[in-house]
Amino acid sequence: MSVRVDIDTLKDASLISTTLELFEKYGIKASFFVTTGVDETYRNFRHYTPWRLISGNNLKRYGLCLFSGLLTKNEVQKSKEINMILDQGHELGLHGYSHYNWMNHLDTKSKEELSCWISKGCELFENAFGFYPECFCAPGFKTNMNYLEILDDFGFSIQVTSWSKTFLSLS
Predict the structure, then answer these.
(1) CA-CA distance, 147 to 149, in Å (whole number)?
(2) What global pTM score does this model have?
(3) Which of 20, 26, 48, 108 has the fewest C-beta atoms under 10 angstroms from its C-beta?
(4) Separation of alpha carbons 161 and 54, rounded Å
C-alpha cells in the first residue's frame, strides 16, 4: 500500500505532526508532496459567499490561515513542520509552485512559462530542504499537454499525473 499526502497550505503543514503520529502508530510510510511559494489560500475567498464560508468546512479547515498569505506572505515550504517528514524517513517531493496559480491558470501558460514555474518550484524546494526533488505531483492533478511535454526535462524519477492518479515510474 502507498499513501500520498499533499501539503498545499500552511494549515496543511500545521497538521503534519498529527499525521506523522498516526502513520508511526500504524507503521505507515508515505510520500508527501509540498507546494512551494506563498500560501495564497485567501485568493479562493472570492469563490465563497459569506454564508458558505461560515457554514462550510472552509473556515473550520483553514481558520485564520485562510488569510495568512494576504497578511504575511509566508511560503509553504518554509514551514518548520515539514522537516519532520524527512526526520521520520518519509519521502518528500514537489507539489508544484504557487498552488493557486497552477490550479487557476495552468491552461493559459506556454511551455516556457510552465518550465519557469517548475524550475522555480525546484529551486525553492532545494533551498528549503537541501536536495533536488526526486518526485513531482501536479497540484489538484491538473495537467495539460504542455505540462506533460516538458515534465521529463526535469529528471523526476516519479511523477503523478491526472491520467492515472497513481505513481508512474518514468526512470
Answers:
(1) 5
(2) 0.78
(3) 26
(4) 33
Q: Report residue 167's pLDDT band, with 50, 70 and 90 as the boundaries.
A: very low
Whose CA is closest to 39, among 96, 95, 98, 124?
98
The three cell numbers of residue 32 are: 508527501
Q: For 27-165, where are the E strands, in sequence order?
A: 30-36, 91-97, 135-137, 158-160
69-82 pLDDT per residue, tens: 555 678 889 988 99
Domains annotated for the chain, with CATH where assigned, are: 3-169 (3.20.20.370)
Which helix (DSSP H) or strand (DSSP E) does residue 149 occupy? Answer: helix 145-151
The continuous run of DSSP H or E covering 103 comes out as helix 99-105
* C-alpha distance from residue 12 to each of 18, 27, 70, 87, 154 (Å): 11, 21, 17, 18, 26
